[in-house]
Description:
alpha+beta; SH3 type barrels; 5-stranded antiparallel beta sheet; 5 strands; 19% strand
Amino acid sequence: xxxxxxxxxxxxxxxxxxxxxxxxxxxxxxxxxxxxxxxxxxxxxxxxxxxxxxxxxxxxxxxxxxxxxxxxxxxxxxxxxxxxxxxxxxxxxxxxxxxxxxxxxxxxxxxxxxxxxxxxxxxxxxxxxxxxxxxxxxxxxxxxxxxxxxxxxx
Length: 154
């Protein structure tokens, strides 16, 4: 009787591949595929960026330095950056990670008035100066006025 019980509780050998093993391999395959795809996209973006490099272009490095490209050494993969007039730095070509686009100025300059009178608007809609316009109530004054009106009605 013990022989039958022990034979039934032992796992059977040579069963085959488990469904969990198949799922594990499938997930591993998807992970590897996504990793290669991401690396390919990054390399394409980097090569596209580096094709735009030319002397005079404003750039930013991976460590935060801003400068203008002065010279590019293709053989040694080096870029000479002018950080400020007279100050240069040599960095590896792959350290340049971003081209800085110049900020486009607005077409119309913002006009700032000398005084604040032109910034206030008369509530009646007239062209009267701001000093003649009725002043706004504070919240406390509004509550007092509403309370007084309520007492008059009753």
